[in-house]
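Just scan my protein:

——
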Amino acid sequence: MKLTSLVPLLFLVPLLTSCSEQKQVYIVYFGEHKGDKALHEIEEHHHSYLQSVKESEEEAKSSLLYSYKHSINGFAAELTPDEASKLEKMEEVISVIESHPRKYETHTTRSWEFVGLKEEETDGDEVQRPKNDAKHGNGIIVGVLDSGVWPESKSFSDKGMGPVPESWKGICQTGIAFNSSHCNRKIIGARYYVKGYEKYYGAFNVTANRDFLSPRDPDGHGSHTASTAVGRRVKGASALGGFAMGSASGGAPLARLAVYKACWAKPNQEKVDGNVCLQEDMLAAIDDAIGDGVHVISVSIGTTDPLPYSQDGIAIGALHAVKRNIVVAASAGNSGPKPGTLSNPAPWIITVGASTLDRAFVGGLVLGNGYTVKTESITAFKMDKFAPLVYAANVAVPGIALNNTSQCLPNSLKPELVNGKVVLCLRGAGSRIGKGMEVKRAGGVGMILGNSLANGNEIPSDSHFVATAAVTPTVVEKILDYIKIDKNPIAFIKPGTTVYKNQPAPLMTGFSSRGPNVVDPNILKPDITAPGLNILAAWSGADSPSKLWVDQRVADYNIYTGTSMSCPHVSGAIALLKAIHPKWSSAAIRSALMTTAWMTNDEKKPIQDISGLPANPFALGSGHFRPTKAADPGLVYDASYRAYLLYGCSVGFTNIDPTFKCPSKIPPGYNLNYPSISIPNLNRTVTVKRTVTNVGNGNSTSTYIFSARSPLGVSVKAKPSVLSFNRIGQKKRFKIMVTVRMDKMNVTEKGQYQFGWFSWTDKYHVVRSPIAISLA
């Protein structure tokens, strides 16, 4: 089934011009359906709008890609800019969104045990008798919006699972290399969405696209995320070379999987990487997921640049999902550590950053002068003895750009100077795997892959083509000094082994996108973090572990890194919480996860950022998630769909629901009942209103006391400061006064964010929320 035998064809993307008649895809969004039309009437209604700007009925029908019918009221169609402008001016139209593929892209043996979940054996008949309250997610349907699924993986076996839930309304859509038998009692539904992709890139071509026109996953990304969230328990899973050996399991192994393939390989790429996801395709997928009856939607996809909610297809779709009490988790993005880079910032989405776990793949590097250092490696290739050591810049082909000579880019090394040697290559331009391939092409026997200062001490693990040692910037400097001083430098790379309980953990990853929320700084994002570095999960049989087409290796499981990997961890935890608390709202589940999160590592010290300093809430949100604690949070900050509509009034995201109109006096965005507080440009006292609901684990009577660690330069007080409850479900309102301290005005720089927290504590619970404040 591998696609590597397919020969790529030249594929020319039509150039967009400034011509007003140049057609492109737009999404015309009307908001919420009124519920007074049948499905065929909805499509006719959408056609009527197209007919008003098109020259004929035939042209109107042929221009329509999708008519969103289940919850989202809108359509996607080919329009000229002039036609789009005319539609945008019509009374019922909320927004017209220009689609562009570069806006969206796709961003485990140990990880679940690390966060406190120890799964029992779930094979055979025993799965009919789950022993924990969460029932391993049994009865919950998780929709994964991604690049498809590899159904043959053992992670998606339906052995011992009961009938498909009666509430399920979805289908098993067939296509290339995917038939109805590929759906089962685990993969209960599968669909794919390609109309928007084809409008941009042209008619789908299997050879050029190296993809399947079906729900099948050519890439590995979709299978990896799906198995992390809901994969079955599989004994003896490991990456190539036996790394991370153990029993792989998703967080909710008995939850059902619904596949929505809306991300596709870019045509004519040298590797299966950087899937592209069109807004119109994703919105159609979310609309179908709502209609199909999923309980959770997992979206490891985000924007390269943050978008206003009214222009963000994921945000729009997620709001409609939340109305039907579907919980949506999405990845924060991989553009860190630069601030203000996170995607999926809407408050009705659970936004997930990436942290580490306590597993490392430890190898070793020994230099001829005796210097020895531990390194990271999952490379199966081994060295038998010491070999000469060279720096890439000293063995590069003449004419290579000066700043790239050290980076082992394709065809940059001179074989006569590299053959039989170990090469020090620096990260920067080009892929990490590609650098190892270049060393191998030139005849090298090993590679030392050195982090730049921008990469810091964070080292992803890759399955390289030569013996490899990945090292930090400090080690790079020592190696360079050795090469300069010694006339005959030599090196030996020791093979890696899997090491558990590596401390300290968790740490924040450098790549995880950071706040503040540039769409609305009154909402603190990300919400939470979960493991996202070097995660083992299921892989596609059509892709190699390196994701390079020239790599013919096949892996059932692979180690992969990104917030794409952290998001399904939270999605799996959400499925467990939905099984325990089926009546909890999406907001209640988010609150439970956030207020019970870890702020400290396994050494009981603050979780560190890439700088070595304590990570702030713009990096880790409320902290590292703890699913076992989230099941009993004590109190929750709940929020209804109408509360989000009211919040939308404060940011200009209005007229979504025909039954709701913004009030004349709109409350500030920071008064949305959120489990965190963010106030930009504070210059006085601001009063923040919140409401908590008692969900204590059978404790109908409880008393909570307020405490806070105020951000530098402000004071934080609550009124009342004591909350007493006498029944489950009881709500209590309180106010938090955040005041600039005049005696500290010169201590903190204006515009610079400062951080703190507040909490409510009783005998059994600590309900903690982060605070971010900047002074005007």
Summary: Confidence is low (pLDDT under 50) at residues 1-20, 121-131.
